[in-house]
Each structure stands twice: as structure tokens, then as C-alpha cells.
């Protein structure tokens, strides 16, 4: 037996409510993050990630209460991302019961923040989220760049260099999202996933583009990801986490069943 | 009401440990404390921790908790978790070398930058995720936990105790490392039972009922 590849359902939370429509038959209130998290835990999720997309910073306190409530009932690792800009933000999430905090835009604008945060709370708590987009033209060698603002603003940073730098600065894990694939349901950008996974010493979570269970398995076998993250295929109850794991196991991937 | 003290020395989030204990041991009073008397008076002690070895030892020293932790480890049911297990050994390689509590002779070592699996693929550090825990002998803390069950790990260093008789479990990551140790009233694990779903909760429940023998 060796280390299992992880399956991580991701919940987008806006003002304390799960968005993108979760439709479980036996959940009374499908917008309640606590109920949804409990359901994923029951199905065998290896971790759960919350992405706070609340627009107003005044309402950011809401996610803290969500994490507190989930952490009282769900005993698997919890990651929280979205709007994390200071070491105080990191501490607040960890104190609420999060095990890891995902830092995205703030790392791009201030890489030293990643160093400071990992020195203060330990690398194991710091996930750096990378949003990458392919910028090489047809026929050129593959090249990806870091984008911010939901994939709208280029930064000029090469994705592979950036991932290496973030691992050097103390990221304990990389959450890699292909902005070309996000929401498309045609599968991960496997070349990107593999390039990043082979470039960094820390675990890589593949994200963006999952539309079926083979996509999850491909992320591991071809993308060399250590974990796979998906939102919509689990939200709409197309597949349960358990089914995803059984499928991965059928493709000879070690999972926790 | 019997009391379980979770030792607070500023290293990591203790809320998860306390919440998990509350969940499985409703008949116990769970306290998170850095008060030496409170630790000394508790019926059971949980010694968690995450972060770097140097910071852990520094915090234990600043808060004058080393002696009371060692005393608890001699006297009552005691559960070390993650860094709370590692610092029970003599010395850690982390941070260019740190002397630890020396309850068990041995060294805490880095996994190494060139760790490979049996297919020759490079293994990531930290060792993060769910891996199998193989029991080396029976112990009350394994009650109702199937041999080989997966627990959640996150660490870059592993323990290498001199006395193999204290090894309670091992796990494979590039090689077989020691993932649980025990002697008399002490049990200590590298993984995080508070984050290991049902099996982790079962281990904590077993601890809450264990008389230390």
C-alpha cells in the first residue's frame, strides 16, 4: 500500500451559501455549506476545499463562521481560499478550523507574503493557488503564464518558474487551475499539469475542466497530479465521490476506499 | 468529570483536536491549556503540534512546559500527535539540528529530496495525504481499527527510534518508516487522527477509554 491519490470536492461559497447549485436528493437545504460538506465527507472525500467568492470584504467574516461550523462536524482536512491577503487572514482561518489556506492573487502581488505566512504557520498550512493560461502559439513549445482576475489579466510570469518560486518560498502544496479549461468540462490541461508537477518538489492538485470520471483519472496518470479537485461533477450529483474513487481504482490508481 | 488536557504551546491549530475529542468522548471535559498545573491535574494528556522542531522546543522552553509534559508521559495516558511525537525523541535534523525531549533515544530525519517509489517515480515532500498504517502488535488504541487502514499524514520528517520494541506501526513512503510508537502509558502517532475521518475518531475514542496499560 502506498500514499493514496486524493479527490477533493470544491465548494464555491458566496456570502455563506454554496453557489453553482448543489442538488442532493437527501439534503434539505442544498445551499448550506455545512450540509454539503457533511455529505462529501460521508461519500469519502479526502479533503474539502472552500473557495470564498464573496465580493464585499465586509462580508468576509461569514466564511469564518462557515469554517467553524464545518470543522465541528467534519473530521477531514479543510482548505479555505479566496481573499487571503495577510498573515492575520491566514491565522483567522486556521483558528476557525481550516487546516490549510490557499493564497492566490496576494502571492502574485506580494510573493514575500507566502514566505512570511509559511514561516509563521508552517508550510503544511500554505497552499499557493496558481491560475495559468496557455500563451504559446500553435507549433511553438508549450508555455503558460499566470493570470489574475479570473483569467483576464496577464502578469507576464511564466507558470513553471512561478510554481518553482512558490515552492521555494514555502508553499506546501500547489493548487493548479487551467484558466483555459475551467468550466469547459473537457478535462484538465494535462500538459500543464504534468509540467508543473514534474517541476516542483511539493504535491500538486489539478483543477479546471473536469467533466467526467476519466478526466479525474487522467489527471493522475498523465498529468502526474497528487490530487484532483472538481466542483460541478459532484455538485450536480452526476457522480458521487465514492463513484469517482471506484473509477480511479479500476484504472489502477491507489485511492482511499 | 474526567479531564483531557490538550497541551497548547502555540504550535498549530488545537481546535481540531479538541473538537474531535469532544465528538468522541462526551463524558470528558476537554481543555486546551498551557498551564502546567492544569496539565498535571488532567486525567489524560494529548500532546499535538505542527510546524518546525526548533520553534516547538523553543515554545516548550519559553512556557516552561517540558518538565510537566515529560512527567505526564511517565504517569498517565498520553497521546503524542505529529510534532508532538517527534519531539519525544532525542534529536531532530530539522533546522540544522535541534535537541528534543529525549524520552526515547533516536533521531528525527528528513525524508530526503530524492525519494522514489518502487516504480522509480519521484515522491513529493511533504508526505501529504492518506496512507496505510500497519500495526506491528496489538494495542488497545487499535481497537476496532482494521490493520492497514489509511490515516491522514502531513510531514517532511520521520522518526528513527533506537529501540525497535517501541514501534507500534509502520507506513510505506519510499521505504518503511515508523508511524506510531508506544511504551507503557504513552502512545504517539505521526498521522493526524483528528483529520482521519472514522478511523481517526475511533483511535481518539480508544484513547479516551484507555487506562494506560
Question: Would you give an account of this structure?
Answer:
The complex is a heterodimer of chains A (257) and B (213). By secondary structure, chain A is α/β, with parallel strands linked by helices. Chain A has one domain (6-250): TIM Barrel, CATH 3.20.20. Chain A is built from ten helices and eleven strands. Chain A has an eight-stranded parallel β-barrel, surrounded by eight helices. In chain A, helix 1 (33-43) runs parallel beside helix 2 and helix 8 crosses helix 10 (241-250). The two termini of chain A are 12 Å apart. Chain B has an eight-stranded mixed sheet, sandwiched between helices. Chain B is of the alpha/beta class and 213 residues long. The longest helix of chain B is centred in the C-terminal third of the chain and has 13 residues, at 197-209. Chain B has one domain: Rossmann fold (3-Layer(aba) Sandwich), CATH 3.40.50. Chain A binds chain B through residues 1-6, 41, 46, 71-72, 75-77, 94-99, 121-125, 172-173, 198, 201-204, 226-227, 256, and chain B through 12-13, 15-16, 19-20, 23, 50-52, 113, 117-118, 122-132, 134, 148, 150, 152-155, 172-173, 194-197, 200-201.
